Amino acid sequence: MNFGMLGAGAALGIAAIGSAIGIGLSGSATIGAWKRCYLNNKPAPFILTVFAGAPLTQTIYGYLVMMFMMRSEKDPWYLMGLGIFAGLGMCFSAIAQGKAGAAGSDALAETGKGFSQYITVVGLCETVALFVMVFSLISVL
């Protein structure tokens, strides 16, 4: 068994699990926010889909890490560890992003204000995944 390839797959798979959880969190809050808008005869802001979909990018980052790892000639045990822990870093980033997006959807639908502040916090959660991806790519070169 090639443990390096297992690590590469883990980077993508674990990051995708986080994306799915994050989208579930933010997406359900977005739907709830839209429902409240409809109940109050207010327009349902389509911009809330930004919050719902934000955690998806961690899957892309996991894919990029996986592709670089598959071409790497580093020690297979190192690659396995890197893939698991990079995947976990991106996973938890997506979950945090989903929670922040859920709060942003709720607040924006209720007040109609603050989008730039809310998306900034969502972006901060994203930054963790970006750092994990970049540092992982550097480490396999």
Helix and strand topology:
Elements lengths: L2 H37 L8 H6 L3 H15 L4 H36 L3 H26 L1
Characteristic terms for this protein:
about 140 residues, mainly alpha
Model description:
The structure is a single chain. This protein is mostly helical and 141 residues long. The chain has one domain: Four Helix Bundle (Hemerythrin (Met), subunit A) (Up-down Bundle). Helices cover 85% and strands 0% of the residues. The longest helix has 37 residues, at 3-39. The protein starts with a helix and ends with a helix. The relative contact order is 0.22. The mean pLDDT is 97.
Counting DSSP E segments of at least 2 residues, the number of strands comes to: 0
Gyration radius (Cα, Å) is 17 Å
Helix percentage range: over 70%
Mean pLDDT: 97
Domain tally? 1
Which word captures the global form? elongated
So what's the CATH class? Mainly Alpha
In terms of per-residue confidence, which ranges show pLDDT below 50 for 5 or more consecutive residues? none
Q: How does the helix and strand content classify structurally?
A: mainly alpha
| Helix/strand order | HHHHH
Instruction: Find the CATH superfamily.
Output: lithium bound rotor ring of v- atpase
